[in-house]
Design a protein that fits this description.
By secondary structure, the chain is mostly beta strands. The protein contains 12 helices and 46 strands. The protein has a 22-stranded antiparallel beta barrel. A hairpin with a 5-residue loop joins β41 and β42 (789-790). The chain starts with a strand and ends with a strand. 49% of the residues are buried.
Length: 869
């Protein structure tokens, strides 16, 4: 079998030789396929120079093949990553504003804005969404990347800011696009949950085309239609219970819930319904021996909808008011059974990367590229009201949209010097984040945002001439009664998600440039070393110099030791600096308008905010690798220290009630910084701050073993992750006791994935076990005068460990057609239910903690048809 070595490529600012690939003909295709199964996985991220095997890389890297990606039933790349990579986590948050549609994830316990995402070695642009809580994550939306377009991916589990730039504090994920110049594939998948809901259809395909004799165009597309799920129970709380109401009320509530959410329950909880189309195109053309041109890009569209909390009569939203003629009006006239706002997000995402790479006759390798990326999310809110508009309110709103735009020029160069590779390069990037105002009705402060808007009563509780006039016409107005609807103050903006006011909208832009240098190579026959340094300068945050050292020492031909030490730097994104959001939360079952304001805004500054500054990190890893025959294993310890970590403060209550001294003091500060309407309509304020330092440390263990026998081929893989994050400074100035405890204990410390894949003749079976360790949550924690926590075990809940089993069988009808049948979460396991006596998460029809990384949708079965051509 002849071997052909492909041209040298430069990926992601690192010089790397592509894999040695077999020249394949029809006669030896089977031999090649068998040979490829035994080839050790190779990574191009993590070290410059020739690609290295997973066990010879100086830093820990996961390499995931196309077959492994296809073995996961989920269509969302976030769920695929979480299934296959234990240190990657994502939760399903049904009522979390935009985070219901673009889900924040984490790698090694750190949010995705600290993980750099690459496609074909080039930086992937960020999504438009800034999470409005926690770390305020603004990272790339992996859901826009269809599995049909990916031939494999690498997950570098190590800080790499000196190599790849800001954001690479936790690691790097590199998606490699398919590059076939002929043939293709098509798959159709259908499935639904054991509960009988959440039905989904996924159609995907890929087709390769030759571009003359020296080029290719590979087109991949995916269509997904996902129905919603509902894991709730009927809304029945101490303050309001649907089942205690009249039959007419319950029927009206069910009619509303079924019309919008296909549920009898007033407050459904589950995954959103969604529809998406995603397309990726990858292309390349060899001009001559010194130049290869390439271009790739994507277009993605999705439309998803979920719901907010149920609004019951008398909850400050559905209240009686006095109209201009003195009559009484209530939102119940529109929604006789109360209402649950329906919230939708339309996401558009597109990008284009093009460039040229090659090796000059002098031996200098180069890669020059330009990149553009754009992501936008536009919101729609219906089945709700702007209370301040009274009986003139519409019931459907467009609260506005968010967009993130990036343009980057990058140059990467390398030169071989004996056994060493010298690499260097530059980057210039311009980025803009834009808050686009909504329609006027979505943010307008209507006349009923003030008490007695028509002037029926005087300051002493007496009746004015206008009031006497409406009384003469039959009005029941009673100015002496402080509970008369005339004094009712109604909330401002589309209820659930007030629109973006032009006053708080606009764009936030910055540019930055960077230069880097790197040298790597075999210092001795057994020792590989690498040193990197990078200088970055931001127009809004100044400059920083970061570095990294890494090495791999082969103790024996089977056993190696590796390690790295480096520093990192992450400047807050324009979105994190500029995002503004007002949403409705229910801290005690009672709606409160919570406002997120930029740290630089007048509102946040009045309440004590400081200007944001960059986060800085120190990363260290130390690991062992072992390879013997068909067995391999890696064990890596990591320690990540982050200084000045950005986080949303615990909410500051705002109240005009003088008896609540702290909240009233905040009210006066807010009143001085804004206006009466804003101060009266917001019940709490949060903002991002460089709040504390943290230490994240843990251990990754990855092992694989393959065996052949007369009964077929079997491959065993096991991946385990142990991870903890603790405060390294006092966060009590910014977080309350509950938030501090949940930050350190709210996610499982141990995650694991064990899988077995066995194939014999035309059949293949895969079994997988996903493990989630224990985690804890506290509610309403008290503190001593010194800030220490007063423990009350009734206020803490421990969620037990969970095992989820996946099983999939494949029958190869012939060399081109396959039928797949599978089950995810075979035994229909759920996480522990929230404790109604101790957890605020038990509110409002919720059964499971919606922020849990342990899936709470139950078992899912599916069938898939695959065709290759």
């Amino acid at each position: 079998m002849k071997l052909k070595k492909l041209n040298v490529a430069v990926l992601a600012g690192l010089a790397s030789y592509t894999l040695t690939m077999p020249v394949m003909g029809a006669a030896n295709a089977q031999d090649v396929e068998e040979a490829q199964e035994n080839v050790e996985k190779i990574a191009v991220v993590g070290a410059r120079g020739a690609p290295r095997s997973v066990t010879s890389s100086p830093v820990p890297v996961d390499v995931i093949s196309e077959d492994e990606l296809n073995s996961v039933s989920f269509s969302d790349m976030n769920d695929v990553m979480m299934t296959l990579v234990p240190s990657y986590s994502v939760s399903r948050q049904p009522i979390s504003d935009g985070a219901s549609f673009i889900r924040p994830a984490s790698l090694r316990g750190l949010p995705t804005d600290k993980t750099l995402v690459l496609v074909n070695g080039k930086r992937r642009h960020r999504s438009a969404l800034v999470a409005t809580s926690g770390s305020g994550t603004q990272g790339p939306d992996l859901a826009t990347i269809p599995t049909a377009a990916i031939k494999g991916l690498e997950v570098l589990r190590d800080g790499a800011a000196a190599q790849y730039g800001s954001d690479a504090i936790a690691g790097v994920i590199n998606f490699n696009l398919k590059d076939n110049d002929e043939g293709g594939s098509f798959s159709a998948e259908m499935g639904q949950y054991y509960e009988g809901d959440g039905g989904s259809i996924t159609l995907s395909g890929n087709k390769g085309f030759s571009l003359g004799s020296d080029g290719f165009v590979s087109v991949s597309a995916e269509y997904v239609n996902q129905e919603r799920t509902d894991r709730s129970e009927q809304y029945c709380e101490s303050w309001f219970c649907v089942t205690d109401q009249s039959e007419e009320f319950q029927e009206a509530q069910k009619e509303m819930s079924n019309k919008y959410f296909d549920s009898d329950n007033a407050n459904p909880w589950g995954q959103p319904e969604s529809e998406a189309i995603r397309v990726f195109v990858n292309s390349g053309y060899t001009v001559n021996s010194n130049l290869d041109l390439y271009a790739f890009g994507n277009y993605s569209w999705s439309d998803s909808s979920t719901n907010f909390f149920y609004r019951y009569p008398g909850n400050s939203t559905i209240e009686e008011i006095r109209l201009e003629d003195g009559s009484i009006w209530s939102p119940e006239d529109i929604f006789p059974g109360g209402f649950t706002p329906k919230f939708s997000g339309e996401v558009k995402d597109y990008s284009l990367v093009f460039g040229g790479k090659g090796i000059l006759d002098s031996g200098l390798g180069y890669d020059l590229s330009a990149r553009y990326g754009y992501d936008e999310i536009a919101y729609t809110l219906e089945n709700t009201i702007n209370p301040s508009l009274g009986d003139e309110t519409p019931t459907k709103f467009h609260p506005g949209s968010l967009s993130n735009e990036e343009f980057q020029i990058q140059g990467d160069f390398f030169y071989d010097i004996d056994q060493y590779v010298l690499a260097f390069g530059f980057s210039y990037m311009d980025e803009t984040y834009d808050l686009i105002p909504g329609d006027e009705e979505s943010y307008e402060a209507g006349i009923y945002s003030a008490s007695d808007p028509w002037g029926f009563c005087d300051d002493d509780g007496g009746t004015t001439e206008a009031g006497l006039a409406v009384i003469a016409n039959g009005s029941s107005l009673d100015c002496s009664d402080e509970d008369d609807p005339v004094y009712q103050i109604m909330g401002v903006g589309s209820n659930g998600f007030p629109g973006y006011d032009p006053e708080y909208s606009g764009d936030y832009s910055r540019d930055s440039y960077a230069v880097y240098g790197d040298v790597s190579g075999d210092i001795t026959d057994d020792f590989f070393g690498q040193a990197s340094v990078r200088y970055e300068d931001y127009s809004d945050f100044g400059s920083e110099l970061v570095y990294k050292l890494a090495g791999m020492y082969q103790i024996t031909s089977e056993l190696g030791i590796r390690g790295s030490f480096g520093t990192g730097f992450r400047a807050p994104t324009p979105g994190q600096q500029g995002t503004t959001n007002v949403s409705t939360t229910l801290p005690d079952g009672y709606p409160v308008a919570q406002g997120l304001f930029p740290a630089s805004s007048d509102v946040a500054q009045a309440l004590g905010a400081s200007e944001l500054k960059p986060e800085k990190s120190t990363n260290m890893t130390l690991g062992l690798t072992y390879t013997s025959g068909n067995f391999s294993a890696t064990l890596d310890y990591y320690n990540i220290k982050i200084e000045d970590r950005m986080y949303a403060i615990s909410e500051l209550d705002i109240s005009s009630d003088e008896d609540d001294e702290e909240a009233y003091e905040n009210y006066l500060k807010l009143l001085a910084a804004t206006d009466q309407t804003t101060a009266d309509s917001i019940g709490a304020v949060i903002y991002f701050q460089n709040a504390f330092d943290t230490v994240t440390e843990g251990v990754d263990f990855v092992t694989a073993y393959s065996m052949d026998s007369e009964y077929g081929d079997t491959r065993f893989t096991l991946s385990m992750n142990y991870n903890t994050t603790e405060f390294d400074s006092d966060p009590s100035e910014y977080l309350d006791a509950e938030d501090m405890y949940d930050f350190e204990h709210g996610t499982p410390k141990v995650r694991g994935v064990f899988s077995i894949a066995h194939s014999i003749e035309d059949y293949q079976i895969m079994a997988r076990v996903r493990y989630f360790g224990e985690y804890e949550n506290v509610d309403s924690v008290d503190t001593n005068d010194d800030g220490s926590i007063i423990w009350d075990e009734t206020g803490k809940q421990t969620f037990g460990e969970e095992f989820m089993f996946d099983l999939e069988g494949t029958y190869h009808i012939n060399s081109d057609l396959s039928l797949v049948v599978g089950v995810s979460n075979l035994f229909d396991n759920y996480p522990d239910k929230v404790n109604e006596a101790t957890s605020g998460d038990a509110c409002c029809g919720r059964v499971y903690s919606s922020g849990s990384v342990v899936d709470w949708q139950g078992g899912y079965y599916y069938t898939k048809f695959l065709a290759r051509f």
